[in-house]
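REQUEST ID: PR-0412
SUBMITTED BY: lab tech R.K.
PRIORITY: routine
TASK: structure prediction, single protein chain
INPUT:
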Amino acid sequence: MPTVTPSGPASYTLRMRVAVFSTKPYDERYLGTAAEGTGHELQFFEAHLNRSTAPLADGFDAVCAFVNDDLGAATLLRLAKNAPKLIALRSAGFNNVDLDAAKSLGLTVVRVPAYSPRSVAEHTVALMLALDRKLHRAYARVREGNLSLDGLLGFDLGSRTVGLVGTGKIGVAVAGILKGFGCDLIGYDVFQNQDAIDLGLEYVELKALWERADVISLHAPLTPDTHHLVDSYAIANMKKGVMLINTSRGALIDTSAAIEGLKTGKIAHLGLDVYEEEGDLFFEDLSDTVIQDDQFSRLLTFPNVLITGHQAFFTVEALEAIAHDTIANITAFAEGRESGNEL
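STATUS: complete
OUTPUT:
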């Protein structure tokens, strides 16, 4: 795999050799550009990081990982045997990292906490509008010469109540966009955000949000408390015909429960940019293979389900911010100081 060793004057204490896993051409481009002038040497690997591939990082000073890399205890133990002391996540989420194991092994873990909330927020609203106005179905029809409007009836988004589960930077960005549509905004979070309140969002209990919202959008981190937050009980309490959107973490939704909700009509629209078993699916071209995940395949059969492959973050602005902050985290570690993004 290619190695990038930037040249030019350096403002670092120690030059870091970094093993970068789960890389695509755009990772090499943006991380390479961000690393110019730092002296850090980046070695790119297409392989996902897990216990089996961890030996690729032998002799490196740091490992750079992405959302579907496995940083469980077994992987971290193997990494710690041969040099790497820093785990630099180029993502905001860290549910794939065993933080207790990392701490016990003396590994520092850093992340990119808020690279481009706007990019995820805009994709979230794009899913809402596409499902509402059935753009995915209309596009396919027109290409086949079918310009009938039967089955494409939508609704005015601005006339509906939207419930946001999680009102951090992304949730607030979604609220700001939807305010422009004229939506009534309600939200749930363990911590209330004054910015959300200033946008007119009303905080309610979670059960009340399930009951009142016409559209529900998830923006919560994945923790033991939020795993399968949307389960059969939650769906049973939702309005019949609800629209459910998830651009946060796949395991916030119990896929089996969502499928049952689609079959009964309780869920009328489902938009997903994440999936709880996406590790072996997303970011790969599987067009010439048979997908072995039966639940994912079942979701694809519903005409009112729209799935994108963890694409919400994928903008020029976001990739530049991710690369910049990732390299800044690595440089801070090399200089023996904190970046502020440690976990």
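NOTES: The domain at 3-115+315-334 is CATH 3.40.50.720 (Rossmann fold).
REVIEWED BY: pending
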